[in-house]
Amino acid sequence: MLDVRRMRVLSEVAARGSFSAAAEALSLTQSAVSQHVAALEREVGQALVERGTRPVELTEAGHALTRHATGIFARLDAAEQELGEIAGRRRGRLRFGSFPTALVTLAPPAFAHFRRRHPDVTLTVVDDHLQRLLPRLARGELDLALIYRHETLTTAGDFDCDVLLEDEFRVVLPARHRLTRRTRPLELAQLATEPWIGGAPDSAWYRIASHHCRAAGFTPEVAFTSDDYAAVQALVAAGLGVAVIPGLAVTHPLPGVEVRALATNAPVRQICAARPRDGYRGPAVTAMLESLSRAAQALSPDPPINRG
């Protein structure tokens, strides 16, 4: 079995870029750091560090080992925290992640409700995109995270997910656009000849929108790309195109745009609270889930459809 202490030394060398800096951070001698790394290399039977490079670089095996070590350290830290809370030696804590749109709409009222009920819990918040939140959740670096799901997206990882709300996409039009005169929900096909303002081709947002456009018989012609929903609205307000974006992103629309509903073929993503399946579901996690559920109910009175 690999020695966790030696793995921590290797991770520190990688982070600091030298044996001497790692030794100082760990309150060890440089010789001791070198011996730990050498012993770990003997354990795995491979070189982990490229000798003679400045700053120190890891081999492919070294990178692989430190990547796994990050998750191991996070799990050990969580175990110590859980045991400390059970024994009453540590204050509760909650490491929370969220994608940006939910952080400015769903999360604030949930945080306020949570803080009123649990002022003694240390809450830390990570603002990041979905593709980076999921690995952090899987490694145990987060206790709970707001994520979204759609059939076009892969959410790899062993998570428990509580569906909070269905976020239906909306059409964003320039204020005097011809389609603003229509009172009924719009069909995606009515936007087929319009210049689109949308996310980058590899973004989750674009994959969702383009999937539904293809089902409606066309591929959107994207004139401008941005993953910033405020920038998208500003470009639409300037009359440069139309956009189809999540409803949460237009909770507070910018001046100069009109927001319209889509008909039955509208893209919908599920907003979920996710946590590692083997993670500690302590009182703080349970309380935050309750607070998120209250906030989601205020945003969307209709109960979500749980699609698994």
TrEMBL record:
GO CC aspect terms: cytosol
GO molecular function: DNA binding; DNA-binding transcription factor activity
CDD domains referenced in this protein's UniProt entry, alphabetically: PBP2_LTTR_like_6 (cd08423)
InterPro entries (alphabetical): HTH-type_LysR_regulators, LysR_HTH_N, LysR_subst-bd, WH-like_DNA-bd_sf, WH_DNA-bd_sf
Alphabetical keyword list: DNA-binding, Transcription, Transcription regulation
Highest taxon, organism lineage: Bacteria
Every HTH lysR-type domain range: 2-59
Protein family: Belongs to the LysR transcriptional regulatory family.
Protein's name in the database: LysR family transcriptional regulator
